[in-house]
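FAQ: What does the model actually see?

It sees only this:
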Amino acid sequence: MRRLVLALVLVLLAGPAFAQESAVTRVIADYEAFWLADDPITAGRLGDRAALSKLPDVTPAADARRKAALEGFQGRLKAIPDAGLSAEAKLNRDLLAWIVDSQLQGLAFDTARMPLSSDGGFYDTLGYLAQTTPIRSAGDARAWVDRLEAAPKSWRDNIENTRRGVKTRFTQPRSSVEVVLKQMRETVATPVDQDPLLQPLARLPDSVPAAEQAALRARGRAAVAALRPIQREFITFLEREYLPAARPQLGARTLPDGERYYRWLVRDHTTTDLSPDQIHELGRAEVARIRAEMDGVMKAAGWTGDLAGFIAMLRKDPRFYATSREDLLEKASEIAKRIDDRLPGWFGTLPRLTYGVRPVPQEIEQAYTTGRYFQGSPAQGVAGGYMVNTYALDQRALYELPALTAHEAVPGHHLQIALAQELEGKPAFRREAPAFTAFVEGWGLYSERVAGEMGIYRTPYERFGQLSYEMWRACRLVADTGIHWKGWSLDQARACFTENTALSPLNIEVELARYVSWPGQALAYKVGERKYVELRERATKALGPRFDVRRFHDAVLLAGPLPMDVLDRRITDWIAAEQAR
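And it is asked to produce this:
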């Protein structure tokens, strides 16, 4: 009784402060319940076993429900004043408000009308899941088959959304559609028994009786076979309805309300208020700066000619290319372990979750980027995946491989994302925050720089590869804004890459196709990386010999992903705390 009275007294003394903190806690709990019920893919990765059998509802009716729910959260968040909030509660409120606003903007633009791009779409979602879905029981296998059986409705709903895009002239350009068509024709040509969607059922646990295994595999094959007619319908739709309606120009600015749409994409991906013109000029300045560094590295390599000649030499010298797919994977694995060995000297906190080095699935490799990170799941027991594209080995230069590994594996995406997943005492929406692209991709690019400081680049050629990769991201600023804001042609956008980077012709074309069909996303890398460099330089200058890079990296990473202005304030506060320590 005495304890109850004491608790009531404390509540009364806390008054408004307690009420405001409780309001933040409640709205977070309600948002996360809504979010995870709405997103079964994320919910399944976080351990909700019932969600593993479901796919997201993408119908207009579902979007209307989302809009109503998000507007409710938006109103509740705006009603919570700063007074009485702890710094952590205020941060939680502000971050959730940013995410909710972003989701509402996406719904306002009805982005569901364009669920396809040269980089992927609803038609390869199950393929990604097949790579990362563990089957450890009959229940897991049944859930996967249930998901396969849910695919036809999901496909038809997405096709209807795409048809709405046709009616409202919110479409991709022809070049992007042709990439999707090529992939889809290859998909339907694959025999059902060889479909990659059946791979999770290939090796079922011994605890599942043989008869049940056979029944599950039969259900899986039937589900994939039932999907084939819808896949063919999608091809016919693209050929007969979508291609004739594809937008005639490349730029997103030419879409209905395209100027406002692209400005929003720029803000959403960079988490800044930079205008497209400001980003374009930043890109040009970075191109000039990096080009000067490249000249110095070429001299260190003993090259006396020009950049074009140096790149031509790199492209034809066989010592810079792997001899087999296995050779490329082995070299990527060796680099990854070499970086692992040096991480403790640069990071105070390391993730528990491991990662693997894996090939990009062959069914998507031709139009896929040179590398990517597949997020793991501590709840499901799935490691992170550093994906290496082993297609067209003469286009996968080994002198670029250390920078690629640093970006996609460690200290890049795996380290940052796994640390966020393992944060204790933080809401799930912060551990899983996908909204802050500049934080995530900027960190990946910054990690390429850190790998150089670690001593990972052992030759001038590998150092040149890192600079070529950095130039690639600088050219993205120029090309993305050029295409989508200034009305550039593909030839104009291509020039920055061909004149300033050692990227292979295949990589350049795949990347250009990606920028055309995914406007704004490519801007996040350089904008985010510049902020990390600026913050570290500021901290180094302010702290002098007391600056500890391990503590700085922990300060950056251990709050989870953040918008750039919030990260700036966090490091400003950290510097002050370090000065007082």
